[in-house]
Specification:
By secondary structure, this protein is an alpha/beta fold. The protein folds into 2 domains: 139 residues, 3-Layer(aba) Sandwich (Rossmann fold); 64 residues, DNA polymerase, domain 1 (Orthogonal Bundle). It is built from 10 helices and 8 strands. The strands form 2 sheets. The chain has a 6-stranded parallel β-sheet, with helices on both faces. The protein has a two-stranded antiparallel sheet with strand order 2-3. Helix 1 crosses helix 4.
Length: 214
């Protein structure tokens, strides 16, 4: 393989989490009497962490303490329902197993909170992921902090790492970390928006990702 260590985004790259995120957002909004959001609206809100997701879902005139209350309601509900409808994208389990069989180290670097990232990694990829890192509030992607942390925890030189993600945030994160990025077209951002961000490579299938890594 060309790279010893493959770093993956989670939402929109490895897992389709959109329905569970939408249900959790709408539980919080509904609980506070705010209008609910559609699946497509929530798709556009994802990418900069859970707190930003909730902020974007709230009406523009929402103020404190409602903002904090909404985030707390969302977090509590999502913690109990984070894998009700979530599924891996087609071919992802097979891709990760193939990478492991070829001696690659695999990490997840997500803008989710650390607890859900580790829980989802354990549920869906228990034998494949060597490190699963949720990003702290003061180091959200595209800050490269957690890319560095993942590489450090795996003992991997950055020159041996590559990042795989579905959004402009992922492309910028890789760029800020000084590593290459594979943009995947099946995620939340969509192919056109991804292409406009200029990833180093684009893959339209998990087979395409594997070909770029070999």
């Amino acid at each position: 393989m060309k790279y010893s260590t493959i770093l993956f985004d989670l939402d929109g790259t490895l897992l389709n989490t959109l329905e569970d995120l939408t249900n959790s957002v709408n539980f919080a909004l509904r609980s506070l009497g705010y209008p609910e959001r559609t699946l497509e609206e929530v798709r556009g809100f994802v990418g900069n962490g859970m707190k930003k997701l909730v902020e974007r879902a709230l009406p523009p005139n929402a103020q404190e303490p409602a903002r904090t209350k909404c985030f707390d309601l969302f977090s509590g509900y999502y913690g109990e329902h984070l894998h009700d409808c979530t599924v891996p994208y087609a071919g992802i389990p097979e891709l990760l197993h193939t990478l492991k069989e070829n001696g690659c180290r695999i990490a997840i670097v997500s803008n989710k909170m650390d607890g859900p990232v580790r829980e989802l990694a354990g549920i869906y990829f228990p034998d494949c992921v060597d490190a699963a890192i949720g990003t702290p509030a003061d180091h959200k992607k595209p800050d490269p902090y957690c890319v560095y942390e993942a590489a450090r925890s795996l003992g991997a030189p950055l020159k041996e790492c590559i990042y795989v993600g579905d959004s402009g945030v992922d492309v910028e994160t890789a760029r800020n970390a000084g590593i290459l990025c594979i943009g995947v077209t099946w995620g939340f951002a969509g192919k056109q928006a991804l292409e406009e961000c200029g990833p180093d490579f684009i893959a339209e299938s998990t087979g395409g990702v594997l070909s770029l890594l070999q």
